Amino acid sequence: MSEIKALMNHQVRLASRPSGMPTQENWHFASEPVGNIQAGGLLIKTLCLSMDPAMRGWMNAGKSYIEPVQIGEVMRAGGVGRVIASENPLFAVGDYVNAGLGAQEYCLIEKANIKRSGIFKIDPSLGLTTWLNVLGMPGMTGYFGLLEVGQPKPGETVVVSGAAGAVGQTVGQMAMLKGCRVVGIAGGKAKCDWVVKELGFDACIDYKNEDVREGLKQHCPDGVDIYFDNVGGEILDLVLTKITRGARIIICGAISQYNNTTAIKGPANYLSLLVNRARMQGIVVFDYAENYPVAIAEMSGYLKEGRMKSREDIVMGLESFPDALLKLFNGENFGKLVLQVAKD
Amino acid sequence: MSEIKALMNHQVRLASRPSGMPTQENWHFASEPVGNIQAGGLLIKTLCLSMDPAMRGWMNAGKSYIEPVQIGEVMRAGGVGRVIASENPLFAVGDYVNAGLGAQEYCLIEKANIKRSGIFKIDPSLGLTTWLNVLGMPGMTGYFGLLEVGQPKPGETVVVSGAAGAVGQTVGQMAMLKGCRVVGIAGGKAKCDWVVKELGFDACIDYKNEDVREGLKQHCPDGVDIYFDNVGGEILDLVLTKITRGARIIICGAISQYNNTTAIKGPANYLSLLVNRARMQGIVVFDYAENYPVAIAEMSGYLKEGRMKSREDIVMGLESFPDALLKLFNGENFGKLVLQVAKD
Prior knowledge:
The structure is a homodimer.
Chain A: H1 2-5, E1 8-14, E2 27-33, E3 42-50, H2 54-58, E4 78-86, E5 96-100, E6 106-109, E7 120-121, H3 137-150, E8 157-161, H4 166-177, E9 181-186, H5 189-198, E10 203-206, H6 212-219, E11 224-229, H7 233-240, E12 243-251, H8 272-275, E13 279-282, H9 292-305, E14 312-316, H10 321-329, E15 336-340
Parallel strand pairs in A: 8-9, 8-11, 9-10, 11-12, 12-13, 14-15
Antiparallel strand pairs in A: 1-2, 3-4, 3-6, 3-15, 4-5, 5-7
């Protein structure tokens, strides 16, 4: 145990709150010894961290659906890791787990925090990073947002923005499996080609190089029954002009607005909800925590059968955390963005 | 019959489409003989017309939830009248009816248009104008919007804007009857006093003289579970900051935005829907047409028992149509705005 106590734990801590896009100055790299494991606790070596658009919101002061990260704290991050020391009978050394690890090399979870960490064992044979993508929080978000809030019916047209992202790829693939026509919106030809050719979407609009209004007109001739919105802003407003009677819009995020230094742009076409008797509803994945096992069982099955795919974009090294986060906001990541902190 | 044929029918026709607030120039006063009643048709003398914010939308080019009024056409308007000639066995001379009469003194409904006119007989003992208010389209809108979309539960806090208006008074009174706390938003002390003292709302915020944000804070200490929105704009945005987890926002209209010459202001705080897993849904009353009798039976009962009230603001004379319409948009009307075209 003594060599563990002495392990140095490198960490990314929040140094200050950003205004607009985060910069290097908002981060502080620290290190401290791992410390003692008490009875009931366990120590996890971080292998991969999930890089999420939601992180930008956690950096702001003021409570949203979750408390903000405090100045000086280790940045909040979900991840997968390997148990390297355990005083808890439910976890053995060598177990692979998914948990709220934080942006650090090692995570010591005390007995009292086991539940709060959301820790659960994972099957590494499905690919470690898959557990941060289709089988992780983004996957759960897409699965429950689409199925519970969206209530898709066979033959309906589903549009999803951020289509090549972690949530988007889950939403689009699940929608196809439920018999829907699926049109993605993504940035760049490579991403659009991938969701159409690899995942099988019916079409994908490249918002960086195409006219989204024209694209919707062309690919959604009968209108949009379900829109799963990850981006907000102008694209939400355009889709609102194409929704059908009784349409459902799932508000999952608004990545186009997270780094605004001015007021958020509200959807000017929201009265389309009135004309179309449509509904716009927010989703927070934690509400479905009890049913994660159902979603994981269903989607693991699809993955094993090759009926569903999972693509990750992997950046190496904890020191790359600040730059990796920015990739999310300029749309550079191709697939679920993952920071690999250690090999095994 | 010959004297009927020769009756001159004064009418208000749409002369041009307004940009912003309608002016006298957008209207054309015309008159023409009533004409022949064919088999199956009937002739109705207009007594009262319903003056509705939605009229502003019907004056615009382009289809919304209903076709626009064409240039030169008699302006669309619902109203109550008395059958003065009938070639239809279902209606007798002397019957009082509610129908889409148009802004004119007489309405000749041909057999083929009977259904489309939405005509039904009314009980005049409940008050003719009540049939344009709580028992008319606004009442149906409030009833089904609140109950079907809002799904109120006893003890919940319901906020309604345009509280002294036709829809607002129905929503607030129905919400109280369903056991909710009700907070109105209205313009001016007289309206606020009326909804609190006469109708029994728990509170009413005077948006013309009070800080709405402060008012919501004071009167909705546990947040807003249901917001019935008739106004849009700044007030919708303020209420969004106060909604509770799982809140329902019913989008019924946006009177603050109907005369905009610039783009509609979208709700900048719409991401509150995400944080609060809340839903914003539009309602168009026609969808509930089959169930109007249920609502009318229930609310007639409350009216007869004195458990519900109905207040109208009556303007006299068809020639007042253009000015009367403007009263809706500067908030001058106190209660459902009705244009009395004839006494009986």
